[in-house]
Every structure is written in structure tokens, then in C-alpha cells.
């Protein structure tokens, strides 16, 4: 029986894909190991969203050359970068045996057999139709993810995802319910519905708000969330469904990307700063306790100082609860990849300013948690106690040994750095 190891780079979607691969391989009789040294087969599940992620994955592949020559049986490079750089990987890293795109994972057991029997390589990077239905994913976590769509048709001008993950397709509602049912039976209490843009979900006349309503009611999961929500497709109906269903958490992750309309247009985001503010206003009016998080890219080609400052002003105005902040990374093949980039120093400086502003907001918002009580679902033991999450997706530490999966009300008694510390009430 072969032992395998998976190293995962990149976003939550990739982590979810690694879970799918785990299930496919364990169903085929292979066993997962935590240490690559013990493995006969190693997969590197790669990300292409930023150049840095690709460089890290390529660096990791290089470190496995000796392992492959001396001990390893199969080395597979899979995922988005495998799709984007298949030819380069095969030429520059000849010790790699499998190069597979995000839609080829069901075929991995057959490909392992093929390359070991024939001492050859396989490249399969076709994408476009796989939704990974009927996979019996298992989980020993308190919180987990269920993908509801794959691929993306939006072609934001900076983004490589539509090129490497293919057209957007929605997973059958019944299959989503089936997977959620299995996870809940295994003890999962917090499930996030996952997609590049969940708001575009559409299957047999069921749109995203309807899907949310169905899964919240039919599965009765303790906590339900969703990620990511493109502002151009955000409907008020989503707010209504959250208000109707107590198990849907009041957490909205709405990528802003830029606070300037010209840059948003160049990014092909299809909403304006005013549209975005309108959504935030509606959320805050209907659900005052909602937490709102975002993604922002700084240094997009041609972004002027004034345009960057508009982003800063908007960040200060909205006061996001958290933000993933990135510097623009050129992705060849995308529309924005044709524009001349800004100097690296300018981009770095802008990111530093944005992080400074947003961190201050987070510190202030975290301080506001002092003396308040939150429902916390505990997820894992830490060196100083147990970490749990509020409904608003905020981490809380209680300096006590608490069983993961338990739910308690926690009074916040101290803020350490950016982390709220509390005690059970
Ligand atoms: S919505 Fe835009 S940023 Fe998100 S995956 Fe699709 S193209 Fe990329």
C-alpha cells in the first residue's frame, strides 16, 4: 500500500481540493502521511493567483529532486500552476511524473498505476466540466468547507483563475446537501459554502439565496457561512435569508479590490464605489451586528496616488473587520498583464500604508469587544488554552482546556495584541 503526502499552496478552494484528493486516494487504498520523508508519492497542489505563490511552489518542487531520484515513486504537480505552466514544469523539472490540472483528480489512481507500470509521465490539464459530485469527503474538523461552484466566468482583468479553473459550473443542490449531511454526521458544526463567486450559483432554477435557504433549513447545520461573494451579484435577498435563518452567520466577505471607479473599471469588476457603499449600507441597516471583511489590491497598473488615497478613505469610512491586502502581481495572459506595471517600490509603499490603516481599525474594533459576551464555537487547543470562533468569524482564546466542538458564551476580559481573550460565562 503506497503512502502519500500532499503539500497545499494557495486559497481555501485549493485546500478543499486537497481534501477531495485525499478522499479519492484513501478510497483507493493509499494512506496519507504527515511527513513527506515517509511518503512514496508526493503531490504539490499549486496556486497561480500571485507570482510569489508560484515561486514558492517551484522552489518546493526543486527540493524534492533528490527524494524522487533516491526514494520516491511518483512526484505529482497538480492544481492551477500545473495547468498554467505544464510545459515549463515538464522541461525544467524532468523528475516530475504527473502534471495535472484542477479537473483531473478523479483520474489520479489510474495515473499512478500508469506511470509506475510504464515508467513514463502524464500531463492532463484539460479543465471545464468536473464538479466532483458524489465524493464521500470525510472530516475530523469542527469547521469545514463545501464547494458549491467551480471555475469562474468573470474575467477580472488581473485574475488568472478563469484561465486555469475553467468556466463557472454549479454543483447539484442534492449533492451539496448530501455532502453537508455526511459532514454534520461526522461532527462538523460550522460549514462554509465555497466558490469563486457563490452569488452566481444557479442549478435547475435554484439561485444562491434559495440555495442558502434550502441548506440552512434542510441540514440544520449549527453554523452556515459562504465565501466569496462578488459585489456585482450581491442581492438584498441574501440579507433577508440570513435574517430568516438563525444558523446563517452574519459574516460577509465582499472583495472591494479598489476604492476608485476608474481602477474598478480597469479591473473589470462591474460595480462602482457607490454600488459597494450601497451594499454595505443595506447590510449594516438590516444586520447591525454584521461583520464585513474584504480583499484589496494596491498598485494596480496606472493607479495614481489620488486613486490609491480614495481606497484608503473608503477603508476608513467602512471600517472593515478584517482585510486580505495584496500588492498587484502581474499575471501574463490576463488583460492587466498587458499594462505597464507601477514601480515595485511604489506598490510596496502603498501596501504598507494600507496595512497600517487597516490594522489600526482592527485594533480599535477588537477593543470594542471588551466586556461583551459572544457565542463561541471552540475549534482547537492552543499553547495557552483553546481557540474558538464567534459567529462573526473572529478568533477568541479562552485560557482553559475546552473540548473542540463545544459551544459556550464567552465574556471578553482582555485584548492581547489583536486577540480577544475571554472566560466562560
Ligand atoms: S470573480 Fe474575478 S477575482 Fe474572483 S476568481 Fe473570478 S475572475 Fe478572479
UniProtKB/TrEMBL annotation:
Pfam families reported for this sequence: Radical_SAM (PF04055), UPF0004 (PF00919)
Q: Does the keyword Acetylation apply?
A: no
Give the protein's cofactors: [4Fe-4S] cluster
**Keyword terms of this UniProt record:** 4Fe-4S, Iron, Iron-sulfur, Metal-binding, S-adenosyl-L-methionine, Transferase
Q: Which residues form the MTTase N-terminal domain?
A: 2-117
For this UniProt entry, which segments traverse the membrane?
Answer: none
Residue ranges occupied by any TRAM domain in the UniProt entry: 367-425
State a single Gene Ontology molecular function.
tRNA-2-methylthio-N(6)-dimethylallyladenosine(37) synthase activity
Reported EC number(s) for this entry are 2.8.4.3
Question: EC class of this enzyme?
Answer: transferase
Q: Which GO terms describe its cellular component?
A: cytosol
Q: Which residues form the Radical SAM core domain?
A: 138-364
Q: What's this protein's function?
A: Catalyzes the methylthiolation of N6-(dimethylallyl)adenosine (i(6)A), leading to the formation of 2-methylthio-N6-(dimethylallyl)adenosine (ms(2)i(6)A) at position 37 in tRNAs that read codons beginning with uridine.
According to UniProt, the name of this protein is tRNA-2-methylthio-N(6)-dimethylallyladenosine synthase
